[in-house]
Amino acid sequence: MDSEVAPYIGMILAECCQVGLMIISKQAFSLTNMSNFVFVTYSNLLASFILLPFSYFFHRSENVPPLSLSLLGWFFLLALSGCLAQIFGYAGINYSSPTLGTAMLNLVPGLTFLLAIVFRMEKVNWKTITSQSKLIGTAVSIAGAFVATLYEGPPLLAFPATLNSYLHVLVEQSKSKWIIGGFFLGVDCVMASSWVIIQAVILAKYPAELIVVFFYCFFVAIQSGVFTLFVERDLSTWSLVPVLRLLAVLYSAVFGSALQVGLTSWCLRRKGPVFVCMFKPLGVAIAAVAGVLFFGDTLYLGSLLGVIIIILGFYSVMWGKAKEEKTGRDHKLSDLQSTTPNTPLLRHVVEA
Fold it and tell me: Where is the EamA domain (predicted)?
């Protein structure tokens, strides 16, 4: 597979895994009354066991730096940001609705882009067409995601009502709880953006994605497990019966915590934090299609317009990054060609 195409395919697969996780976890929470805290603990614990042998075999031949106390501290901080993001995210959805949660999560690309600029992980030259394309594309993608989630419009395609109608009834909340939920979701967005930035820092120090993901899941399982012991006093909440709870945990561990986070980490090390976050709005488009196909959702004009706007913004950012990378490669090649005739050592080697 072309090394330039692989990160794009990887992030699309990661977003598909995320949408599938949202669908099955929503059913587990709504139909079996499963605790979201227990769900996070079990999922990350199982994922860490799955990742342990893979992280050893995949990286045993690589010259990775030795683990240090400082590096373990970074792993713990990464897990803390991810754990808090999951806790506040689930709490926000419980207080408000999945619609508000989806809309708020589309703030993550913009927040990450700003944090990447602050920490000098993303270069921005306001006068160049590539930077302008990335900035405009970021704003357009976020705007499209808000249109897809907040503007309904007339129906275009309707399917018979299914489980979706029951789920919508379950998430109806009062206005006061809606405000609290919006606050929790805002914290979730900040934590998610911080998670991406922290992981970018770790991968620069320790370029072994599977080992990083293993320690992330392991520490999240410990942190969420301790938190669950304080929140859930009823031991029956730890039960994986009915079987839907077990299936949800298995899917989350394999396709959510292990595969999705692994793909995201792999793409993050190769393309940077902004590239990874720009696929978040694309997840809204995937979720809209999945909702129509699997939940019998009605396709509204707002969803269609939002998807079109998201795609336009997405390609604007990707064009800017591709153009920027090509310019960087051309500059390196030009510098190499210009310095070659004037480098005595290199000339001596060539002549020899």
Answer: 9-148, 187-317
Q: CB–CB of 252/34 below 8 Å?
A: no
Distance, CA of 274 to CA of 280 (rounded, Å): 10
Tell me which residue has tokens 């929790």: 184
* CA–CA dist 118, 114 (Å, integer): 6
CA dist 277 → 25, 121, 223, 281, 314 (Å): 22, 14, 25, 8, 11
One DSSP character per residue, 254-275 reads: IIIIIIIHHHHHHHHHHH-HHH
Contacts of 317 (CB under 8 A, 6+ apart): 133, 134, 137, 138, 141, 274, 278
Tens of pLDDT, residue by residue over 295-344, are 666 667 876 787 788 778 877 877 887 787 777 666 665 655 555 554 44
Contact 187, 74 (CB under 8 A): no
Sequence-separated (6 or more) residues with CB below 8 Å from residue 212: 75, 78, 199, 202, 203, 206, 265
For residue 51, give the H/E element and its range: helix 36-59
Q: Which two tokens stand for residue 28?
A: 């587990």
Residue (of 158, 153, 146, 157) closest to 301 by Cα position: 153
In terms of C-beta distances under 8 Å and separation of at least 24 residues, what long-range contacts does 327-335 make, across chains too?
327/130
Calculate the dihedral angle through the C-alpha atoms of 199, 70, 118, 278, rounding to the nearest 10 degrees. Answer: 0
- Give the angle 258-263-268 at the CA atoms, nearest 5°: 125
Residue that is written with structure tokens 């594309």 in the block: 137
Q: How many CA atoms lie within 13 A of 212 on its CB side?
A: 29
- The SS3 of residue 281 is helix
Q: What are phi and psi of 86, to 5 degrees?
A: -70, -45
Query: Are 150 and 103 contacting, i.e. CB atoms less than 8 angstroms apart?
Result: yes
345 CA to centre of own chain: 47
CA distance 214 to 117: 28
Strands (E) located in 49-89: none
Give the CA radius of gyration of the chain.
Answer: 22
